[in-house]
Write a structure and sequence with these properties.
Arc Repressor Mutant, subunit A, two-stranded antiparallel ribbon, 4 strands
C-alpha cells in the first residue's frame, strides 16, 4: 500500500498529539490513504547517518512498522503495487527471474573493481543471491537489497535512472519495504499471520497462492496440504467454491483457537519447494 503514485510508503512525523507511536502511525495511514490497518508490529528503527539525509535534511530517525491490510475496492486513496515491481529479482514463482543474469554480471564487475576486497565481495554475492550452488534463501531480501545499494545498482544509492534495478522509492522507503518483506517471509514460517490477509472463508489453493506470493516461491501442492492438515490450522466450513471451472473446492476457515494452542510451541507454515 503506497502513496505518491507508488513512490513512497504511508508515513509522517510523531507529533505531541499522538498517544503512542502506533496510534500515530494509524492516524497517518488513515489520513493519507483512508484505509484501515489490521495486524501491526514494530519493524525496525533506521538512523544511518549516510542514508536519505540530503533528501530530508538533517539527521532523520525512522521507526518503521509492518502492517497487514486487505485491499478493498473503493477504500481510500492508496496506490496498490506488487512488491515485485520494486524487487523483481525476488519473484521465483515462474522460475529464476531473467533480471538475475544482469545482477550477477554487474555484481561480478563491482567485486572485481576492488582487488583488495574482491574475494569477500564475491562470497557475499554468491551467498545472498544463491550462486555457485548455494541455493536461494527467500529470507535474505534485505541483505540482497543492501548489497545492490552498496554496489551502486539502485537509484537510492545515487546511480542513474537507466542503471537502476527495480522500481525506486523516495528516500529510504525501498529499504524499509525490503525489511518488511524479509520479516514477513520469516514470520509466516512460525506464526499464522498470513490469515490476516485471507477472507473469512477460502480454498486451500487460494491459501497456497497467497503464501507463494509472499515467499516468491512455488510450493509442492500435496506437501502443502498435508502440512496444513497436520497442524490443524484450518477447518472446513461446509461450503464449496468453483475454481478455474473445475470441480468445486471445499471452503475452509482459520481456527482462531490455534493461536492459544500453539502459543508456546509455535505454528509453522510450510515453505517446501517444488
Amino acid at each position: 500500500m503506497t502513496i505518491r503514485s507508488g513512490n513512497a510508503l504511508p508515513s509522517g512525523p510523531f507529533e505531541m498529539g499522538h498517544r503512542t507511536l502506533q496510534s500515530g502511525l494509524r492516524e497517518w495511514v488513515q489520513e493519507q490513504t483512508e484505509h484501515p490497518v489490521g495486524y501491526l508490529e514494530q519493524l525496525y528503527t533506521f538512523a544511518d547517518r549516510d542514508r536519505n539525509n540530503e533528501i530530508l535534511g538533517g539527521r532523520t530517525i525512522s521507526i518503521s512498522y509492518l502492517g497487514l491490510v486487505n485491499e478493498q475496492a473503493g477504500a481510500g486513496r492508496p496506490g496498490w503495487h506488487g512488491w515485485y515491481d520494486y524487487f523483481p529479482w525476488e519473484d521465483h514463482r515462474q522460475g529464476r527471474p531473467a533480471v538475475l543474469d544482469e545482477i550477477v554480471a554487474r555484481l561480478r564487475s563491482w567485486a572485481d573493481a576492488d582487488p583488495a576486497r574482491r574475494e569477500h565481495r564475491h562470497r557475499r554475492a554468491d551467498f545472498n543471491f544463491g550462486l555457485d550452488g548455494g541455493g536461494w534463501n527467500e529470507d535474505l531480501a534485505l541483505q540482497r537489497y543492501e548489497l545492490l545499494y552498496e554496489a551502486g545498482l539502485v537509484a537510492e544509492a545515487g546511480c542513474g535512472v537507466e542503471a537502476n534495478l527495480g522500481r525506486a522509492m523516495f528516500a529510504d522507503h525501498r529499504r524499509i519495504l525490503a525489511t518488511g518483506i524479509a520479516r514477513l517471509r520469516a514470520k509466516i514460517k512460525y506464526r499464522p499471520v498470513v490469515f490476516e490477509l485471507m477472507p473469512e472463508s477460502f480454498t486451500l489453493l487460494r491459501l497456497q497462492r497467497t503464501i507463494e506470493a509472499l515467499a516468491g516461491l512455488t510450493l509442492h501442492k500435496q506437501n502443502f496440504r498435508r502440512l496444513i492438515e497436520q497442524q490443524e490450522l484450518v477447518e472446513e466450513t461446509g461450503g464449496t467454491e468453483s475454481e478455474t471451472g473445475g470441480r468445486p473446492a471445499k471452503l475452509f476457515r482459520f481456527r482462531h483457537t490455534v493461536l492459544e494452542e500453539r502459543a508456546l510451541a509455535g505454528t509453522k507454515l510450510p515453505l517446501s519447494r517444488n
